[in-house]
Amino acid sequence: MRKYEIMYILRPDLDEESEKAAKEKVAAILTDNGAEINEVKDMGKRRLAYEIDDFNNGVYTVLYAMANSEAIDEFDRLVKINNDVIRFMVIKDERE
């Protein structure tokens, strides 16, 4: 298993309950596929550098996880079809 840093941006027009459900769903994708989430940083609503899907703001979250490649592949597949997530990025975490 490798360390990964996963950042995703949720739609800013979600209500509090929907936002919480979307974050739980994203985390469940990883944990259901054998990943272990070590840390979650909710960065809150921030302005985007450029407009995405007619949104100027987004709700940022960063996850630090230990996962195998199958979990990351499944995460990638499911998040692409999730309408609540407007952008995401997965990188290998090289920090100690």
Descriptive key words:
4 strands, 30% helix, 96 residues, 49% strand, alpha+beta, Alpha-Beta Plaits, four-stranded antiparallel β-sheet
Topology, pairings included?
Blueprint lengths: L1 E9 L5 H17 L3 E17 L2 E13 L1 H12 L4 E8 L4
Antiparallel strand pairs: 1-3, 1-4, 2-3
Helix pairs in contact: 1-2
Walk me through what this model shows.
There is one protein chain. With 96 residues, this protein is of the alpha+beta class. It has 2 helices and 4 strands. The protein has a single domain, classed as Ribosomal protein S6/Translation elongation factor EF1B (Alpha-Beta Plaits), CATH 3.30.70. It has helices at residues 16-32, 69-80; strands at residues 2-10, 36-52, 55-67, 85-92. Helix 1 (16-32) runs antiparallel to helix 2. The mean pLDDT is 93.
Count of discrete domains: 1
* Structural class assignment: alpha+beta
Round the Cα radius of gyration to an integer and report it.
Answer: 13 Å
Oligomer: single chain
User: What is the assigned CATH homologous superfamily?
Assistant: Ribosomal protein S6/Translation elongation factor EF1B
Shape: globular
Order of helices and strands: EHEEHE
Count of extended strands: 4
Q: Supply the CATH architecture.
A: 2-Layer Sandwich
Which strand order does the major sheet show? Answer: 2-3-1-4
